[in-house]
UniProtKB/TrEMBL annotation:
Cross-referenced InterPro entries: ATP-grasp, ATP-grasp_RimK-type, ATP_grasp_subdomain_1
Keywords: ATP-binding, Nucleotide-binding
Ranges of residues in domain ATP-grasp: 104-302
Any Gene Ontology CC annotation: cytoplasm
SUPFAM superfamilies noted in UniProt: Glutathione synthetase ATP-binding domain-like (SSF56059)
Signal peptide annotation: none
Taxonomic superkingdom: Archaea
MF annotations from Gene Ontology: ATP binding; ligase activity, forming carbon-nitrogen bonds; metal ion binding
Protein name per the record: RimK domain protein ATP-grasp
Species: Halorubrum lipolyticum DSM 21995
Length: 304
């Protein structure tokens, strides 16, 4: 049986183990964070556990492939070296997807629809920010370029409030160890429906619509992230949305990808992508979802 290393032990791990085992793939967890990791010599220590000394090598041995490069890239480099296996979505794929501006630039260059977006690279004067937003209509969305789960995303209703949000970003970007010192100014699409389409091996395999509870919407909330309280409901997307998701994955060259689509006023646009998407309940996907996923894993393990 092929053995797959997975560095998350959250929802995705629990959901995929059974279906993949049915297809000849054993999934085991490898802890990549909140622990010590041997770089050279010595042993490893997991959070809350005892040092495992020389037995630690067994923790990383016997795997044929890894399922998505670890989210923390520094720890990931060590885990990658210890495992020494090919990944479904390697470091390059994760970095490509995490760069929101890079994704939108590539998708736009391929002729696919996106929200109107401008990248601002700090440090810049306020005049540069004012000029960057001059062609937009308020409100606008401001978002860190490489954050996830809606962290740091805000709206601004005028230039003063926009500059206030930027002040906070400047404080973060002023820290020398901050690698990404950029953020996006993006058109706000009111009342947009928010979809996460899944693409595996170039083919659409299902989607969910993410919706906030009615009371949250009435209270003025608008970010439809599941980690912010939104509910993901399986939906059957029309052909044009399926094709848009597939073309996005093809443009980026990523085999396993979540593509976030926004639909409003007759417009359908690519908003973001996620090369580490959470796998939802199987009932929300096409019947061949796990067959396709197993196929990608098998090809990865074979070095194809």
């Amino acid at each position: 049986m092929l053995r797959l290393a997975m560095t998350t032990d959250a929802e995705t791990f629990d959901r995929v183990r059974g279906p993949l085992a049915d297809r000849g793939i054993a999934v085991d967890h490898v802890q990549a964070k909140e622990r010590s990791l041997r770089v050279s010599g010595g042993g490893d220590r997991k959070a809350g556990g005892n040092g495992v000394g020389g037995g630690a090598a067994g923790e990383f041995a016997g795997f044929d492939a890894g399922f998505v490069y670890p989210s923390r890239l520094m720890e990931g480099a060590v885990v990658d070296a210890r495992l020494s296996v090919p990944w479904v979505n390697d470091r390059e794929a994760v970095l490509t997807s995490r760069n929101k501006a890079g994704v939108l630039a590539a998708v736009d260059a391929a002729g696919l629809p996106t929200p109107r977006t401008t990248l601002v690279s700090n440090p810049v004067d306020e005049a540069v920010v004012a000029e960057a937003v001059d062609s937009f209509s308020y409100p606008v969305v401001v978002k860190p370029n490489s954050a996830t789960r809606g962290v740091g995303v805000a709206t601004a209703n005028d230039l003063d409030s926009l500059l206030g949000v930027v002040d906070y970003l400047n404080l973060v970007h002023d820290y020398r160890a901050t690698g990404d010192k950029s953020y996006l100014i993006q058109e706000f699409l009111p009342d947009a429906r928010d979809y996460r389409a899944m693409v595996v091996d170039g083919a659409y395999v299902g989607a969910v619509e993410r919706e906030l509870p009615a009371d949250a919407v009435e209270a003025g909330r608008w970010k439809h992230n599941v980690h912010r309280g939104a509910e993901a409901t399986g939906v059957d997307l029309p052909d044009r949305a399926r094709e848009l998701a597939e073309r996005t994955a093809g443009t980026l060259g990523i085999d396993y990808l979540g593509v976030d689509l926004l639909e409003t006023g007759g417009r359908l646009v690519v908003n973001e992508t996620n090369a580490r998407p959470t796998v939802d309940a199987a009932t929300k996907y096409e019947p061949d979802f796990y067959d396709r996923l197993a196929g990608v894993i098998e090809r990865t393990a074979a070095g194809e």
